[in-house]
Specification:
Residues 28-102, 110-176 form the Pop1 N-terminal domain. Its main location: nucleus. InterPro entries: Pop1 (IPR039182), POP1_C (IPR055079), Pop1_N (IPR009723), POPLD_dom (IPR012590). The protein is α+β, with helices and mostly antiparallel strands and 779 residues long. It contains 23 helices and 21 strands. It folds into four domains: 25-86, no CATH class; 170-289, Aminomethyltransferase beta-barrel domains (Alpha-Beta Plaits, 2-Layer Sandwich), CATH 3.30.70.1400; 294-503, no CATH class; 543-638 and 710-775, Beta Barrel (Elongation Factor Tu (Ef-tu), domain 3). A hairpin with a 2-residue loop joins strand 2 and strand 3 (139-145). The protein is extended, with a radius of gyration of 39 Å. The protein starts with 24 loop residues before the first helix and ends with a strand.
Length: 779
């Protein structure tokens, strides 16, 4: 087969075609103009040839753009969706996260809905991000910080500054003449517990006072709680008294005050009717529960420096721009400013007069806030003038804050944080420099209340627990709170309130009040649930160590055992004179004086462990024997027999047998259904959580911890005198301490045998330890 050669094209090399010697480029381009235009169109508008996202630069392209249009720029999304529809592929969108799907459409409405059940503080959202929250007394309150801050909060209260929001305290306004208010409080208080409401130290409004409230004419029984009060300075016959009440006692105190005022009005009417002068009876007392103030508590020596740095008094020029001043114009601004500057050099609030009330008008605290968190420090070179500490000026406590009319105006004219930032950014010529005399921001009236802390050096170090309480109008909580935080204050919650009361040697909620009983019920239920969640092998068998009430202090049974009579009602001794006598008797080992209702009396004590050992809540305070003092190392409670141990084992065996029978029965039923080819349960039923435990569980719990207790005094080898209501390691004492109560007759018996020390034993231990007792005056 012969090979055929390929023919050439050009005639110059043997081909058939004669090519031209030159080419006209213009003619060539004009003949290809249609093709060039089509190519240019396809490059500039690729939607006809390729997808839109392919027209983006390479560095902006993402693989997910092919099915998620939101990854493209906004101008290209619509065309991309159209392309996907033409290709027949529906646009696939990723399902939003559960958090995104459950978010409320209107966040403010959602917050208002959640506040219907429990009241929120103005600082709630700030706390909710940083604290463990708890529900107490109808409020949602911060309990403890999420970080490990227990020791840090103590250091703040002792050496720096601890900041707490106590705005949950309920303010009650009482209006009437001094005589009427004095007679009303005479029925619900007693002068034996301290100065009365109408004492000369408080009546002019320069100092804050405390009072113990009881039911009408029931002292010393029927204790309700402790309140703080401030008189509003006024020259008129009708005066105003403000009470700040703990929320657990607010409703009861309001009803008691109404009853006391009603009985007073009836008595006045009867007296006037006998004298035939009915028209001379003055108007009745008016009692109102007002809207809540914001109240912050700063504790520690550095709290004075933080308050001094955060607050700047205004002058008369800045008052013109505040609309609320037309309703109530403040007075004595220059004198107050001079006094505040004079006391600002103090190194600690404990140096100032006790319970001083200072009414100031200050600039917006956001103008004083530092850019970075810093620690406020005092000028240590300058000393405070002692003349300013001797006398409190009468004009110092005047404040427009007590006028309720101005509160709405202040809240209405409040500049929000967004508006404040926008205003500062726009008007500040030098970035970072804030004009403190800016007339656009209104001035704010505040009231400062000094707290002296410990005043007894034999009990606690002088000045521990001192600080300031600042009362602020509603709406301004966060501006003041964040300013204090930025100046170095450490935030705390309810746990720190209880810890501070324990370090001060006080009981947070006394056991003879309704609030204290409710608190004991809550603690008992929590500890009981925690105990029964443990498996039986990990539970402490309290029957074997002679503890019949590990989660509660049975005060009624304790007093009944020491009086040989059934006691249904008891009280805590608060007579300061009697408490001082008892402390003297303990120190000198003398016999106690005879008092009225001694069989129903509990004496408050502060217990300090003499050597090693720690104290827990509900620990026993026991009566020592004379020989125990020389044999403390080997002093243990002997093991006791558990009478219910065998019953529990038998009950458990029967329960296991019944469970096995039920299991066999269910297995047979299942097999029968399978043989008959009947449909089984295709869907697994959800496990139903029982709200109440079964009868078996209730019976077993009763065998572990019997609910019926007949006696507590002679359960162990050492007689029980009292209980520790709160026990832990005390940082102020550098040892384990406790706040507790002892039956009066038991304390008398202890001193009669010539001893002034007691034995303590934890509810989970058999070891007895020696401890010293000190009478607590601040109950």
């Amino acid at each position: 087969m012969e090979e055929t050669e390929a023919k050439e094209f050009d005639a110059a090399i043997g081909g058939t075609e004669h090519l031209p010697f030159s080419a006209n480029s213009l003619k060539f381009a004009s003949s290809r103009s249609v093709e060039i235009a089509a190519m240019t169109e396809s490059i500039l508008r690729p939607s006809k040839s390729k997808l839109i996202f392919q027209s983006l630069p390479v560095h902006m392209r993402r693989r997910v753009m092919s099915h998620n249009c939101k990854r493209l720029p906004r101008r290209l999304r619509r065309g991309h969706l159209e392309q996907l529809k033409k290709s027949g592929l529906p646009p696939k969108q990723k399902r939003p996260s559960r958090k995104y799907r459950r978010r409320p459409a209107n966040l403010l409405e959602e917050y208002n809905r959640r506040q219907k059940q429990h009241v929120w503080l103005e600082t709630h959202i700030w706390h909710a991000k940083r604290f463990h929250m708890t529900e107490r007394w109808g409020h949602r309150l911060p309990y403890a910080p999420c970080d490990k801050a227990f020791r840090a909060c103590y250091r703040g209260s002792s050496a720096h500054c601890l900041l707490q929001d106590i705005s949950y305290y309920t303010p009650i306004q009482i209006t009437g003449t001094v005589t009427q208010i004095k007679e009303m409080f005479a029925k619900v208080t007693s002068c034996l517990c301290g100065l009365s409401v109408s004492a000369m130290a408080y009546i002019n409004g320069t100092r804050q006072g405390n009072a113990h409230i009881y039911n009408v004419n029931s002292f010393p029984f029927g204790y309700i709680g402790k309140v703080e009060f401030i008189w509003v300075p006024s020259d008129s016959t009708n005066k105003t008294l403000w009470l700040f009440v703990h929320p657990s006692q607010a409703t009861i105190i309001q009803s008691v005050l109404n009853d006391a005022s009603c009985t007073q009005d009836n008595n006045d009417y009867e007296v006037a009717k006998k004298k035939r002068k009915v028209s001379s009876v003055t108007g009745s007392i008016e009692i109102k529960v007002m809207q809540r103030f914001n109240r912050f508590r700063l504790t520690g020596p550095n709290s004075h420096a933080i308050v001094a740095e955060s607050l700047k008094c205004v002058t008369d020029d800045l008052l013109k721009n505040a609309k609320w001043t037309s309703l109530h114009k403040p007075k004595d601004l220059i004198d107050k400013n001079e006094y505040w500057e004079a006391i600002s050099t103090a190194k600690s609030p404990a140096q100032l007069p006790a319970h001083t009330v200072v009414g100031l008008v200050v600039i917006d605290p956001r103008l004083r806030r530092p850019r970075y968190r810093t620690k406020a420090k005092q000028d240590t070179d300058t000393d405070i003038n002692t003349d300013t500490l001797r006398k409190i000026p009468p004009y110092l406590s005047n404040s427009p804050l007590w006028d309720v009319k101005i509160h709405k105006s202040i809240k209405k004219e409040l500049m929000t944080n967004g508006q404040f930032v926008k205003h500062i950014t726009k008007n500040n010529l030098v970035p970072g420099v804030v004009d403190e005399d800016d007339p656009a921001l209104q001035c704010v009236p505040v009231v400062l209340v000094q707290r002296p802390g410990s005043q007894n050096p034999e009990f606690k170090k002088i000045g521990y627990g001192s600080g300031w309480d600042i009362i602020i109008p509603s709406g301004y909580a966060l501006p003041f709170w964040l300013t204090f935080i930025m100046f170095g204050a450490r935030s705390g919650g309810l746990r720190e309130t209880e810890s501070l009361a324990f370090e001060m040697g006080e009981c947070y909620l006394p056991p003879d009040s309704n609030a204290g009983k409710e608190n004991e019920n809550r603690i008992e239920s929590e500890m009981r649930d925690r105990y029964f969640r443990l498996p039986p092998s990990k539970r402490v068998n309290y029957n074997k160590i002679a503890i019949n009430s590990p989660f509660r202090c049975p005060w009624n049974l304790l007093l009944s055992d020491w009086s040989d009579d059934k006691i249904n009602e008891f009280f805590v001794l608060r007579n300061k004179t009697t408490l001082t006598e008892i402390q003297d008797c303990i120190t000198r080992k003398k016999c106690l004086p005879n008092i009225e209702n001694s069989t129903k009396c509990l004496v408050p004590v502060y217990v300090k462990v003499a050597a090693k050992g720690s104290l827990q809540r509900h620990a026993l305070i026991c009566l020592p024997e004379v020989s125990d003092l020389s044999n403390l190392k080997n002093l243990f409670e002997p093991h006791h027999e558990d009478p219910n141990e065998k019953v529990r084992k038998l009950k458990r065996k029967e329960h296991v047998k019944s469970l096995k029978k039920i299991k066999k029965k269910n297995y047979k039923l299942k097999k029968k259904l399978q043989q008959e080819k009947k449909p089984m349960y295709t869907k697994k039923l959800r496990k139903v959580h029982r709200r109440e435990p079964s009868e078996y569980v209730k019976a077993m719990r009763e065998l572990w911890l019997p609910s019926k207790i007949e006696t507590v005094r002679k359960v162990g080898t050492r007689e029980v005198m009292g209980y520790i209501a709160q026990g832990a390691f005390s940082f102020t004492e550098a040892r384990s301490c406790g706040v507790g109560y002892i039956a009066y007759n038991a304390l008398r018996y202890l001193l009669n045998i010539g001893l002034n020390q007691v034995l303590v034993r934890n509810p989970t231990s058999r070891k007895y330890r020696l401890a010293n007792i000190v009478i607590t005056m601040n109950t």
